[in-house]
Design brief:
With 284 residues, chain A is mostly helical. Chain A has helices at 2-34, 51-58, 60-94, 98-109, 116-121, 124-127, 132-139, 154-178, 182-190, 195-206, 208-224, 227-232, 240-249, 253-275; strands at residues 38-39, 44-45. In chain A, 42% of the residues are buried. Classes of the chains: A mainly alpha (284), B mainly alpha (278). At the A-B interface, helix 1, helix 3, helix 4, helix 5 and helix 6 of A face helix 1, helix 4, helix 5, helix 6 and helix 7 of B.
Chain lengths: 284, 278
């Protein structure tokens, strides 16, 4: 009987494992292998060269691009964390009825289910030269000519990131907050803590797992992003993802693969550090 | 718990602004998609018309919208069904400790955190090396699964953690086979969550861009088509497309919510459906 049970378990998990093996493990292995290949203008040639890595790491453009991407990552992380935490805090502690909590939570999450690209495009009528923002500012007399930096700039890239990904912070932090025993907060108040002290010394430390999970999502997405940078910067800003895309469009697959390996290592390193702060499996 | 002091109103204001920030742009392009035929990408509205929606379905104007729309819907539906079945099955397995469970769990986490473009690139390269053509129904389908399955699995974990195993034991004591237990007890109880996993599967696949980029092959899926349009279309037809796709997403969400509510209501009225089916 026991042996049959074990077989059933393996059968149940087999489809999942197979998908991950075929479409995650093998493709990543392929990237690693191809990153050592040679290439000409028309084809890739099996070889074992370090040249792709040399060319990549010795180019100042690479370093600038990685720095630019890291800068976007840090700014976006800080903003989504601040906004996400505040929203989650409001939902968890200030909205009293459970029904309203669910409704408002859904209101925050529904945009997640719609197309990211469409949500990026939606900023055009707002931020463009003749957009709503400029028109409003002109009418109020705050500016005398349209602001150019609103659309197709680093500003609009970060705005789009915050717009798209704050949700990834709200959900796990809200989840952490809902697990905090309400009696702990009463105890803090009875012991004479002010609202800020409770927030800083009780709520914040207990939200660390949620913050870590949200951060992992936001940081990995921004580090690998290329669509948002491409669309929102109007092609004026670089990102690691875009660099890979350019190599791909020139059919320099091994060069793109080497870049992919470097990015992957950087992402895994970052996530590894954040994972030390939290045991994800306990959080479910 | 909190008195409604200034902090409450301050935070309420902040929340309201956040919601405006989330929905404002979408509402704006929805309005602008009804521009008159001579209208442009920004306000003012020059009349109200369905001109741009009509434009959307003329093939030569904006590329292959209908075709990519159909492909995305089919792909989304298949991904949805497969995601529900595979994550549910894996969720059942993960209730026991088995050798390799930690490895598979970490693969699922890896699948979430490895940037989409790497998965796309990897699968694209793999097919190229093997000499097989990429296509939306093969390589892109697999790429989408690497995104939907981890979400599905994590939801199943959360759900099974809260599942009361006594129902299952009761069923077994009454002589149900394992299969009957799954079919008449576990599935009916978990139905709302399974609908949720399905919703995840469909919309994530339907909107996926990065993972489709190097895996979709000759025929575009809808997000690829939209991306192509953003670089060469400068008329409100773009907004019309946005309105149509967002509308479809909302429809799917509404269907999922309504069916979850119906299941709950039925349960409140009749008690659990478990064991009611013949």
């Amino acid at each position: 009987m026991r042996r049959v049970d074990a077989w059933v378990t393996y059968l149940q998990v087999a489809p999942l494992s197979l998908v991950f093996l075929l479409f995650l493990v093998v493709p990543i292995a392929t990237i690693v292998v191809v990153s050592f290949f040679d290439y000409s203008t028309t084809q890739i040639i099996p070889a074992f060269l370090l040249q792709n890595y040399e060319e990549l790491l010795l180019s100042p453009v690479t370093w600038q691009t990685y720095l630019q991407t890291l800068e976007f990552t840090v700014i976006t992380w800080a903003l989504t964390l601040a906004i996400g935490f505040t929203i989650a805090y409001y939902l968890a502690f200030y909205v009293r009825s459970a029904t309203w909590q669910t409704v408002l939570f859904l209101v925050c999450t529904i945009p997640f289910w719609t197309s990211n690209i469409i949500r990026m495009i939606s900023w055009i009528p707002f931020l463009g030269r003749n957009g709503l923002m400029n028109t409003a500012l002109l009418k109020m007399g705050l500016i005398h000519e349209p602001l150019e930096f609103l659309l197709f700039s680093d500003f609009s890239v970060v705005l789009a990131y915050v717009h798209l990904y704050t949700l990834f912070m709200v959900v796990p932090i809200f989840n952490s907050m809902m697990r905090i025993e309400r009696s702990l907060l009463e105890a803090a108040r009875d012991a004479g803590a002010s609202g800020w002290q409770t927030l800083w010394n009780v709520i914040l430390p207990l939200c660390k797992p949620g913050i870590a999970i949200g951060s992992i999502f936001v940081v990995t997405i921004v580090m690998g992003d290329f669509v948002t940078v491409r669309l929102m910067s109007g092609g004026q800003t670089a990102s690691v993802g875009l660099m890979m895309m350019n190599a791909m469009s020139l059919l320099q697959y091994p060069a793109a693969a080497a870049n992919a390996v470097v990015l992957l290592l950087l992402v895994l390193l970052t996530v590894g550090v954040m994972m030390r702060l939290v045991d994800i499996r306990k959080e479910l | 718990m909190h008195r409604r002091g200034p902090a409450f109103w301050l935070l309420t204001g902040f929340f309201a602004l956040f919601v405006l920030f989330l929905y404002g742009p979408t509402i704006t392009i929805t309005i602008l998609s009804f521009q008159g035929p001579s209208g442009g990408l920004t306000f003012p509205m020059r009349g109200v018309s369905l001109h741009w929606f009509g434009n959307l379905f003329e093939k030569q104007m904006v590329g292959d919208f209908s075709g990519s729309f159909q492909r995305s819907i089919v792909l989304g539906l298949v991904t949805m069904v497969v995601t529900v079945l595979v994550s549910f099955s894996a969720g059942l397995a993960f209730r026991k400790r088995f050798r390799g469970s930690a490895a598979i769990f970490y693969l699922a986490i890896a699948s979430l955190i490895v940037p989409s473009i790497l998965i796309s690139l990897g699968i694209g390269l793999l097919f190229r090396v093997m000499g097989v053509d990429t296509a939306w129904y093969s390589s892109a389908f697999g790429a989408h699964l690497t995104w939907t399955l981890p979400f599905g699995l994590l939801i199943m974990f959360a759900v099974f953690n809260r599942f009361d195993r006594r129902y299952e034991e009761a069923a077994r004591d009454l002589g149900a086979t394992s299969w009957q237990t799954v079919k008449h007890v576990i599935v009916p109880i978990l139905l709302p969550s399974l609908i949720g996993v399905g919703l995840f599967g469909f919309t994530l696949s339907y909107d996926e861009f990065a993972r489709s980029l190097y895996t979709a092959g000759t025929f575009n899926t809808l997000p690829l088509e939209i991306y192509g349009m953003t670089t060469n279309v400068t008329t409100p037809v773009l907004y019309a497309l946005g309105t149509v796709t967002t509308g479809l997403s909302f429809l799917v969400i509404a269907l999922a919510l309504v069916s979850t509510i119906i299941v709950r209501r039925r349960r409140e009225r009749h008690g659990s459906d478990a064991g009611k089916a013949a």
